[in-house]
Amino acid sequence: MDFDPVLLARLQFAFTISFHIIFPSFTIGLAAYIATLLAMWLRSGEDRYQLLARFWTKIFAVSFGMGVVSGIVLSYQFGTNWSRFSVVTGNVIGPAIGYEVLTAFFLEATFLGVLLFGWNKVPPWLSALSAAIVAVGTAISAFWILSANSWMQTPAGHEVRDGIAYPVDWVAIIFNPSFPYRLAHMLTAAYLTTAFVVLAVGARYLVAGRHEADGRTMVRMAIGMIAVLAPLQLFLGDQHGLNTLKYQPIKVAAMEAHWDGSKPGDFHIFAWPDEKNEVNRFAISIPRGSSLVLTHDPNGLFPGLKSVPPSERPPVVPVFFAFRIMVGIGLTMIAIGLFGAFLWWRGKLVTTRWYLQIVQHGWWLGFVAVLCGWITTEVGRQPWIAHGILRTADAISPVTAASVLVTLVLFVIVYGIVFSMGLYYINRLIARGPQGSAVEASHGGPGRPLSAAQGAAREAIEGG
Amino acid sequence: MEWYLPVIWAGLIGAAVALYVILDGFDLGIGILFPFAKEDKEQDQMINSIAPFWDGNETWLVLGGGGLWVAFPRAYAVVMPALYLPVIVMLLALVFRGVAFEFRTVANTSKKYWTFAFTAGSTLAAFCQGLILGGLIQGIKVENGVFAGGTFDFATPFALLCGLGVVTGYALLGACWLVMKTEGPVAQRARTHAKLLVLGVLGFMGIVSLWTPLQFPRIAERWFSLPNILYLWPIPAITALTAFLLWRWLEQGRDIPPFLAAIVLFMLGYLGLAISVFPYLVPPSITIWDAAAAPASQIFMLLGTLPLLPIILIYTGFVYYVFRGKLKEGEGYH
C-alpha cells in the first residue's frame, strides 16, 4: 500500500492537537473556578469552600498533567512533521511560542506545585494567589497560541522574501485581524466547557442525594456563568464569523455549503454536500437564512465555493458538519443556561429534579463544541497551512511515510491508554466526592441502603 | 549586531538545555532508580521528593525546543526530521512518565502499572535524549539546507553509547538528589548507588572523550591543536578532581555537596561537548549564523527574554525554598 505522507502528517497532527485541546479547554476555566472558590474561602472563612477547591484541584491536577505532556509533543511536532512550515513562518510566529513558554508555561507549572502540594506549607492567601496565578497563566498561554494560530489564518505585519516570511510590524503580527475574535471566542468556550462539567457534577450529587451543600453551590455557580456566557458566545461567534467572511470567504462558503455566490445563501439545517457535483443533497433549509446571518440582509450576496477552482477549496463535508454540531451545541447551552436562570429566579433550580437529571449528563457538551469549532476553522483553512503564504502540501518534513505512520499508531495507542485511564480516574474522584463530606456519605440516606457508588467512594478513601 | 545575536542566543538556549538536563535529569534519574527501591512506601518517598518540582523542571525542555525554533529555525527544521524517531519516542516516554505522577496517587489496584510506566518512561526518555545527543555530535547529512539522510542514520554504536551514558548520568543526579532530600533506607541506598554511578559516569565520559577525537578529525583538531590544548587541558583535570571530591563527600556522609558536585560534573561534560561542536548547531555543516532567525525576530524575543528569565529563576527558586528540607519515609506534600 502506498501512503500519502502529507495526509499521514496531517492525521498525526490532527490527532495529537485534538487530544491536547481537550485539556486546556477544561483547565483554563477550572483554574479560574478554583481561584474563585479559594477567594470565597478567604472572604467567608467557610471551610467547605476550601474543601470544594481541593476536590477540584485533584481533578485539575490529573487533567493538567495530560494537557502538559500532550502539549510538549506539539512544540516538537512543528519541527518533526512540518519542518518547511517552521522555516517559512519561524521568524514571525516563533516568538509567539517563545513568549508563551516564558510568560505562561513556567508560571503555570511552577505555581501549580505550590497549589497542589503547599496546603500545609504556605499560608491560605498564598494558595489562593497560586491558583489565581495558574488561572492567569493558562489564559496568557491561550493568548499567545491563539495569536500564532490566527496569524496562520489571517497573516499580517510581515513580508515574504524568497518564500520566507519576515517580520515588519510586531503589533500587526500579534494582533492580526482574526486574533481578537478567536481569543474571545475560545476563552469563552473554555469557561463554558468548565461550567458544564461543574454543573453536571453538582447535578449528579443532587440527584444522588450526596454532598448536597456542595452540589447546590456548584449548580448555582455554573448556571450563573452559563446564563451569561452562553448567549454572549452566540454574539462572539457571530462576530468571528463575519471576520472570517471578510478574510477567508471560502471557509465560510464551506461552513454554509454555499456553492453559487450569485444567489443569496440558504441556511441548511441538514444537507449532504456533494463536492463532486457541487450541489447539496437532502437539504432541509431556511431560505436566505445564511445571507441574513452573514450580511444582515435576506438578499445579501457572499462568495460561493464555485468562485474558486476545487484545488483552492477546503474539504466541505467536515467543515459543514463540524460547524453545525458546534452551533447546535451552542444553542442547547443557551437553552440550558436561560432555563436554569429562570428556575433559579423561581427558587426551584436545585430542586427541579428532571432538569438536574438532564444536565448531569451534559458534561461533554463544551468539549465536543470546542473540537468541532477547531475542526471548522482548521480544516476550513485548507489547502493553506499559512493562508496565502504556504500550502499544507508544501510544509512537511523530509521524513518517510512509514516513520509518520508508525509514530501515528504509537500516538493512538499511548494517548488511548492515557486518556481512558485519566477519564476513569477523574470519574472515580468525582464519585468519591469532596473529602470533607466523607462522613455524610458513609451515613447513607435515611432508609436508603448504601449505594454501590458510596461503597466505591469509601473504598477509594480507605485505599487512597 | 548580526554577528553577536546568534552567539547570545546560542548561549541562552545552551543555558536552557543545561538547566533542563540538571533539573529534569534528577527527576528522570529517580525514575531510573525506582526498581531498586525495596517497597512501595520507599517509591512513594522518592517520587514525593520531586512531585512539586517536576512540572516546572520539564518546562525547560519546551524552552529548549521552542527556543531552537524561535532563534534558529533552520537548525530546528533539520534536527527534528533527522532525529524523528528518538524525538517522538522520547516525547511518548515523557507522556507516560508525566501522567504517572498524578495517576499513581489516584490509582488503587492499577498503581503498579503506573509505577512501571514511571520507570520505563523515565529510562526510555533518558536513553532517547542520549541518542539525540549522540546523533547531533556525530553529524547530520544536509543538502541545500534540508535534512537529506535516512530514517536510521542516528542509530550508530556511538549514539547508543551516548544513550547509556545519559541514563547513567541521570541516575547519578537522581541518587545525589535522594541523598540530599530524603532520610532513612532510601537515602542510604542512594549513597551506595551514587558511588557506583560516579564510576560509571567517569567511564562513559572517558570513552566519549577518546572516541570523538578518533572518529571526528574536526573534534581532534579542536582539542589537540596548539594553542587550544594549552587553554583546554584544565577541563579534564577539573572533571577528574570533581569526581574525586564527589566520591569523598559521599564517603564522608555529606548530604548536599555530592549533589552540587554531580551538577558540576554534568556541566563540565556539557562544556566539553559544546567546545567540540561550536560553532556548529548541526555538525558538520550548519553554524549558528547559518541557522539564525531574522535579526528582527531574535531582537524581539531577546527584549522579552532578558527580563523574564531572571523572574522565572526567582520564582522557581522560591518554590524550591518552600519545599526545602528532607522528606521522611511516609511523608508527602499531598
Uncertain ranges of chain A: 437-464
Strand content of chain B: under 5%
> Which architecture of chain B per CATH?
Up-down Bundle
Helix content of chain B: over 70%
CATH topology of chain B: Formate dehydrogenase/DMSO reductase fold
Domains counted in the coordinates of chain B: how many? 1
Structural class of chain A: mainly alpha
Mean pLDDT of chain B: 90
Approximately what portion of the residues of chain A adopt beta-strand conformation?
Answer: 5-15%
Rg over alpha carbons of chain B:
20 Å
**Most strands sheet of chain A:** 2 strands, antiparallel
Instruction: Quickly give the structural class of chain B.
Output: mainly alpha
- The overall strand count of chain A is 6
Description:
The complex is a heterodimer of chains A (464) and B (334). In chain A, a hairpin with a 3-residue loop joins strand 5 and strand 6. In chain A, 55% of the residues are buried. Chain A has a domain of 210 residues. In chain A, helix 1 runs antiparallel to helix 2, helix 1 packs across helix 6 and helix 3 packs antiparallel against helix 4. By secondary structure, chain A is mainly α. In chain A, the strands form three sheets. Chain A has a two-stranded antiparallel sheet. Chain B has 14 helices and four strands. In chain B, the strands form two sheets. Chain B has a two-stranded antiparallel sheet with strand order 1-2. Chain B has a two-stranded antiparallel sheet with strand order 3-4. Helix content of chain B is 77%, strand content 3%. The chains are: A mainly alpha (464), B mainly alpha (334).
